[in-house]
Amino acid sequence: MQRVIAGAFLANGETTIHNPCRSDDCLAALGIIQAAGATVVPGTSILISKNTPVNPPKEVFCGESGLGTRMFTPILSLFQEEITILGGGSLKSRTMNMLSSVLNQLGVRCITNQGKLPIRVKGPLKNGNVTLNGSITSQFLTGLLMALPVTKGKSIIKVNSLNSRGYIDLTLQVLRQFGIEISHERYEVFQIEGNQQYSPCEITIEGDWSGAAFHVVGAAISGKISISGLSCPSNQPDKKILDAIAQAGGIVDVNKNLISIEKGDLNSFTFDATDCPDLFPPLAALAANCKGTSTIKGVGRLLNKESDRAATIKSELQSVGISVILKENEMKITGGEISGGTIDSHNDHRIAMMGGILAINAKSPISIVNSKAITKSYPNFFQTLNELGIQTEEC
Q1: Which of 121, 178, 182, 383 is the most exposed place for a label (fewest CB within 10 A)?
Q2: How far is C-alpha 148 from the chain's CA centre?
Q3: pTM score
């Protein structure tokens, strides 16, 4: 949704977005483009239009969206006026130091607050050849891939140690929908022709595998559900949750775009989440309900999230009686009785949702501190749990 919003902003004309997501991050993205001169007409579908020239904003607010910040910074750098990029909550402590050196090489004056927000950029962004490190996040690469096609000449981006390739596939998919073509060599060298034009279009937003992953786990540990609206051929990395469920012994049946998950005899599993780090919280809830000790690899990807997510998962699982060991790049979780009690979300939406799934089989109720953090990505999460027979109440 955020990628499509950015594409709609870069197109001249009217783009229609069907099945829009209304999470805090997506609303923040809409706010950014409105501040930058786009017209947004809300409704069952959302209409976005922008006709040049526009008056660039002096500042924009990204909420708590890491993707929104890192993606829109290169896009806003297309303006020649100085723009200040602000954010709130945990986003203010997340690293942005990968932005300035690369943007400076592309003709942008980019100043961060010691590698963090606020960011000040003054363009215009120019074509060029740059190298960046993709091991921490792919989000900045997404921003460059979206902004550079409208510059005046060819650009080449060399990327070292790219993780989360599926998210770049998602970016390239959205770009193609707007008529933008980019080639790459094994995700290591991206060739971007300049002078391309975004074409307005109609796009239907895919169902979100990241949010659905929690319900997939909920069914695997207790009961059975069928989920529609998810694309099985999707480029979203978090569809790999089905692989983990199957490995643990849950029953998975995929029939076109209807996915059924049923509880099985769950045993420990080993899963590499390096390319899908947002799966750590639902995988942790799954492991807590499995016999034996499960291993989840890719802990290094969790440091720069809404919380120090590895430490948060460990502390909150331990608070409800589940043993967690962090060793180098691995998280080892030994399943057992979930005692109930209190889980602090640390203002992290995915930790709050993890707490909701852990409560399903807990010996006593679980209270989730700052449960409203879910609005960042999935505002109706607890409502959906209620509809699935899990008793929830606000306290």
Answers
A1: 383
A2: 22
A3: 0.94
pLDDT in tens, the chain (395 residues): 999 999 999 999 999 999 999 999 999 999 999 999 999 999 999 999 987 777 889 999 999 999 999 999 999 999 999 999 999 998 998 889 889 999 999 999 999 999 999 999 999 999 999 999 998 889 999 999 999 999 999 999 999 999 889 999 999 999 999 999 999 999 999 999 999 999 999 999 999 999 999 999 999 999 999 999 999 899 999 999 999 999 999 999 998 779 999 999 999 999 999 999 999 999 999 999 999 999 999 998 887 666 689 999 999 999 999 999 999 999 999 999 999 999 999 999 999 999 999 999 999 999 999 999 999 999 999 999 999 999 998 86
Q: Long-range contacts made by residues 189-193, C-beta under 8 angstroms, separation at least 24?
A: 189/156, 189/157, 189/158, 189/159, 190/141, 190/145, 190/156, 190/157, 190/158, 190/159, 191/154, 191/156, 192/127, 192/145, 192/148, 192/149, 192/154, 192/155, 192/156, 192/157, 193/149, 193/154
Helix (H) or strand (E) holding 184: strand 183-185
24 tagged catalytic:
no
Q: Is 394 exposed, middle or buried (0-12, 13-18, 19+ CB in 10 A)?
A: exposed
